[in-house]
Amino acid sequence: MDRALEMQVFCTVVDKGSFVGASESLEMSKAAISRYVSGLEERLGARLLHRTTRRLSLTDEGRQFYHQAREVLAMMDEAEEAISATAPEPSGVLRVNAPVSFGVLHLAPLWGDFMKAYPNVELEISLNDRLVDLVDEGIDAAVRIARMESSSLVGRRLASTRMCLCASPDYLANHTSIGTLSDLTDHGVIAYTNFASGNEWQFQGPDGSYSIHTRSAVRCNNGDTCRAITLAGGGVSLQPSFMVAEDLRSGNLVEILPEFRSVELGIYIVYPTRKLLPAKVRALINFLVDRFAQPSWEQ
Fold first, then answer.
1. Domain containing residue 286: CATH number
2. How many CB atoms lie within 10 A of CB 283?
3. What value, to the nearest 5°, has the Cα angle with vertex 108 and ends 102 and 109?
4. 201-210 pLDDT, tens per residue?
5. Strands 254-255 and 154-167
6. Could you list the residue range(s) of the whole structural domain that residue 35 is in?
7. Residue 271 and residue 247 share a domain
8. What angle do CA 165, 243, 262 make, to 5 degrees?
9. Is residue 110 part of a domain?
10. What's the average model confidence in pLDDT over 222-243?
């Protein structure tokens, strides 16, 4: 079977939530859809979907394959458009959404170059940390920092960021030492309220997984504020490397228990659909993929 078609059929089944929905979308019979998915599972040697009479859901293997398959399909579309003589010049209003901290630190310095490269595109940028509905709010593309475990959006991975357990040297000098993860329970933490796991912080250590229940000294929905309080000696925080890499390099912050690694998140550019993707969105995707090929916080 055509491997690209297998991936397309599988992703459409996931997007539509059923074999019937995929059948209608792709104008194929339900039997053909089932045959493609079954053939893919057999070839991979793994079950990708849990099937019941009421609903479909992804297995762990299916979730991993789904996101990778989407990226492959997106790159195939890009390759075709890159050599198409009929591809239109990027133009018009381009509405982009991004998280506040990442948008200020890492996207804002890039927009000038993007505007020079695409003078016929008019940027409209919105920054906030809530989960924006791209379709309802008319957003062409958004930067998302997440695990992206379940989403109907199409996305390209730009980079990754890990969560760093850190505090200022002043704080560490004037509070009880932190020799193990369990010592965190004696400290008030600076908690970012949009962090998915809440007060339960997960880590991977030399001997396996750990989950620590923390006590908040400060709770805030803005990462820059959490960072500022941490720099001022207000407590221990779990901050993304894209925000604190320079602080760690300069010594303004110290990474605590670096042998224990916390969550790693993907940084994605996402958009509602791959079908008939506007040239302005394609230009943005290619621009950001290129600029984040070697993220500054990983150097």
1. 3.40.190.10
2. 18
3. 115
4. 889 888 888 8
5. antiparallel
6. 3-82
7. no
8. 30
9. yes
10. 94
User: Which helix (DSSP H) or strand (DSSP E) does residue 216 occupy?
Assistant: strand 215-220
Q: At 219, list the tokens.
A: 């709770």
What are the pLDDT digits (tens) for 21-52? 888 888 788 888 888 899 889 989 999 998 87
More confident residue, 186 or 247: 247
For tokens 């994605």, name the residue.
Answer: 268
| DSSP letter string, 84-105 | -TTPPPP-EEEEEEE-HHHIII
Q: pTM for the full model?
A: 0.70
Output b/e per residue, 11-26; b: 16+ Cβ within 10 A: bbbbbbeebeebbeeb
What per-residue confidence (pLDDT) applies to 1?
52
Q: Which residue has the tokens 């605590």?
A: 256
pLDDT score, position 196: 66
For residue 52, the domain's CATH number is: 1.10.10.10
| 3-class DSSP state of 240 | strand
Segment 102-112 shows an average pLDDT of: 96
Q: Are 70 and 11 in contact (CB under 8 A)?
A: yes
- Identify the residue whose tokens are 């792709």: 26
Strands 200-205 and 208-213: antiparallel
3-state secondary structure of 220: strand
